[in-house]
Write a structure and sequence with these properties.
Strand order of the largest sheet: 2-7-1-8-9
GO molecular function: ATP binding; GMP kinase activity
Family: Belongs to the guanylate kinase family.
Distance between the termini: 8 Å
Radius of gyration: 18 Å
Oligomer: single chain
Strand content: 15-25%
Protein name: Guanylate kinase
Main location: cytoplasm
CATH architecture of one domain: 3-Layer(aba) Sandwich
Number of helices: 9
Pfam families: Guanylate_kin (PF00625)
Largest sheet: 5 strands, parallel
Length: about 210
């Protein structure tokens, strides 16, 4: 039996190269699907202005993070630009047991780690309609210097190469269409037999249905 079979909630992983519109899509999904919760990561980087512990991130020290990682407390973790980022296994599992759907905004490496432990986690890769469109979006954000945009574009090719590892691919050309496709994936996952059985245990028992 896979790990997710005993959970009423579903686990979603959304991955994309920088500039593909992942965060915008995720925020729109969360706004219209209140039963989905975005997992809050733990990080060792310093809080930015306006960030609050427990809202954007759980902030901690490198020493504490490493100890917890060694103890297996993280579902996935990685070092990015000298800082550690990780997803708490306990928090994710506790919420899924109560029927809450959890969404992870992570990179392909983190998704690979999660998939090994939660084979039924739904992997969703957001693709740009073209590399030119990706470059244009990065420039329009006006948050990165030209050399940073170049670096992100170079990295995008390597990230997109891992798209075949995911069950679902959404081409974010028209935002409304992409959001509709993302929503459809989420709603379909909720109808999986394992999740329905966990959410409706008494009904399944009355009907003589025994989940294996």
């Amino acid at each position: 039996m896979s790990a997710t079979n005993s959970f009423a909630g579903s686990l979603f992983m959304v991955v994309a190269p920088s500039g593909a519109g992942k965060s915008t899509l995720v925020n729109a999904l969360l706004a219209q699907e209140p039963t989905i919760k975005l997992s809050i990561s733990t990080t060792t980087r310093a809080p930015r202005p306006g960030e609050t512990h427990g809202k954007e991130y759980y902030f901690t020290t490198a020493e504490d993070f490493v100890q917890r990682a060694d103890a297996g407390e993280f579902l996935e973790w990685a070092e990015v630009h000298g800082n550690y980022y990780g997803t708490s296994r306990i928090m994710v599992e506790q919420q899924m047991k109560t029927g809450t759907d959890i969404l992870l905004e992570i990179d392909w490496q983190g998704a690979r780690q999660v998939k090994k432990q939660f084979p039924q986690a739904a992997g969703i890769f957001i693709l740009p309609p073209s590399i030119d469109a990706l470059e244009e979006r990065l420039k329009k954000r006006a948050t990165d210097a030209p050399h940073v945009i170049t670096r992100r574009l170079l990295a995008a090719g390597g990230e997109i190469a891992h798209a075949p590892e995911f069950e679902y691919a959404i081409i974010n050309e028209e935002f409304a269409v992409a959001l509709s496709e993302l929503t459809a994936i989420v709603r379909a996952a909720r109808c999986r037999f394992a999740q329905q059985a966990a959410r409706n245990a008494s009904l399944f028992a009355q009907l003589g249905i025994h989940a294996e």
